[in-house]
Amino acid sequence: xxxxxxxxxxxxxxxxxxxxxxxxxxxxxxxxxxxxxxxxxxxxxxxxxxxxxxxxxxxxxxxxxxxxxxxxxxxxxxxxxxxxxxxxxxxxxxxxxxxxxxxxxxxxxxxxxxxxxxxxxxxxxxxxxxxxxxxxxxxxxxxxxxxxxxxxxxxxxxxxxxxxxxxxxxxxxxxxxxxxxxxxxxxxxxxx
Length: 192
Prior knowledge:
This protein has five helices and ten strands; from the N terminus they run H-H-H-H-H-E-E-E-E-E-E-E-E-E-E. The protein has helices spanning 7-20, 25-32, 36-43, 51-60, 66-69; strands at residues 86-91, 94-98, 109-115, 123-125, 133-140, 143-147, 150-154, 159-163, 168-172, 178-184. The chain starts with 6 loop residues before the first helix and ends in an 8-residue tail after the last strand.
């Protein structure tokens, strides 16, 4: 679970972004509908904004509100070097390399999946209670996929999109390893 920042850090981020945008407290006051005095108190970490006030400040500064409260301060551009991806093992025989750490407010999770048939590498995702989707693109090998009762066989260059409200099962051809690019609206790091 991601923790949120302290009041002082929240204020520092608001002030930093306001100055980067070359906005005065008065300009943010007009755009957010909050007094400049209250904004100054927030920036100095002397008070916490309500959720509604934070959303209005975020809109005035053209940012997602999550930028101000997520523990890790992330940039609008996220880069991962090919020689140092974050690696997950969501199932035996399945390697998931994270393609990006994410940007503020992002709800996308991109992975390079490697499924090893020798290790019975199969990825199963339980249905999600919240709306979302997944896109899979096969780069190498043959992949059998099942979404609920629907089954497909995908070859290199094939892509498919499915709702995460359905259970997902991805299985490699028994004779070859499979490489898949996956973009999901939920993380493989959490419970599935």
